[in-house]
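[Solved] Which block belongs to which protein?

Original post:
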Amino acid sequence: MKAFGLNKCSTCQKALAFFVGKKVKVVFTDFKENPPSKDQVAGWSKALGGWEKLINRAGYTWRGLDPADTANLTEARAVALAVKHPSLIRRPLIEHSDGSVTVGFSKKIQEIF
């Protein structure tokens, strides 16, 4: 399993500690150290059912963007924005061994493990 996020993100830290406790093998990638490619972000967006589920529109990064960058987003523009600002991607993003992708660390996701 692969997880993506930010080392300093408290939700990512909780998720990683949870996986260690459950003895789930996970490879973690920090977006700041290894930014995702356009193909990765597009694939995640498709797997989640669209950019609306991928992009965190409640965070500091989103609020700090120029309104012209966030108005009338299309799939392609949202993917490009997430590539340019990876901290827009909901965290943690998890690529499961079955090929599915989830974002966040809700009780529903925890119950999978």
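(Second protein starts here: sequence line, then its structure tokens.)
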Amino acid sequence: MPKKVVLAYSGGLDTSIIIPWLKERYRTEVVAMVGDVGQSEDLGAAKKKALETGASACYVEDLKEEFIREYIWPTLRSGAIYEFRYLLGTSMARPVLAKAQVEVAKRTGADALAHGCTGKGNDQVRFELTYKALGPGFEVIAPWREWDIHSREEAIEYAHAKGVPIEQTAKKIYSRDRNLWHISHEGGVLEDPANAPEEEMWQWVVSPERAPNQPAEVEIGFEQGVPVSIDGQALGPVTLVERLNTLAAAHGVGRIDIVENRLVGIKSRGAYETPGGTLLVRAHQELETICLDRETLHLSQQLAVRYAEAVYYGLWFTPLREALDGFFAEAQKLVTGAVRLRLYKGNVTVLARHSPFSLYRTDLASFHMAGYNPKDATGFIHLLGLSVIPQRGDGR
């Protein structure tokens, strides 16, 4: 039996009831760890709640800067988008939270780690693979794989029985995750993909119909594939993301509703709000088009799929992810410049791309033939077409 357990704590429904459950089931000391990844919540209240419901201590770790610099920026630089739509907001946050949890466990002399992830989801894998990589000696407790609670409705009943204050009700039952990059919504009416999301479900990005009638423009600057400025003003990573979030959300940019393939093999329907991230991904893609040669760009696009899978599958602390980072660090050395975007009622339009390392040549791209001999194309086409000439089999 563990003597001291460090719980990754958010103050939401699942982790709120885990503290009394751990104390009752394991007769153990419980330490809560709250990771601040920009969830815009009262973390002081979360700490107070953890202590009032049985935790012996609660540590609030400020992870915002680390989250962006060490997780979001490398993922953005790689162009990773899971199944071409999901911008990996929850996937990127889990390893930084689990890493901090392991560090708290080592500091406090704990011998076990616990999380509130369900047995059906991806997050259990992301947390536990990080534990294995950074704290392989700790016992792991996953209550959703042990207890007799089988639904969020039953979890709500348990909370009421134990006197644990929660916000969720049978009518207000969405499971949400928020950080600097996004808000995710699961559960409720979303469990049936035939149902449209309820308008009141969205919490951040305004409806495009209610967005301003006048468009907004913004220029995002990059150095070696990493965002560094807005409209020519150099900004730190947290401020930069926050400003783009505010701008994009106000103009209805960043809502998506998707069905994705979970790592465990189950299809899952989720709705995501990623306002600033949507602008950053679009701007980075456009800058690559003028800064990368064709072969590097195409290989980057292929490896971006593998990078997205590695992040989604919880393989952050692995040789694979580190090796992919090595490729993208080299490939992105000249992805420096700025992209100007227009935002209007949920749409993003690219207005301009600039880079001191642009490979785009107007003299070659122009319809004017100066500096280009069109006769050279004859031999090129002939050689390229050798493989498509029908084979007659008679040597002719």
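Accepted answer:
You had them paired correctly. Confirming on the second one: The radius of gyration is 25 Å.
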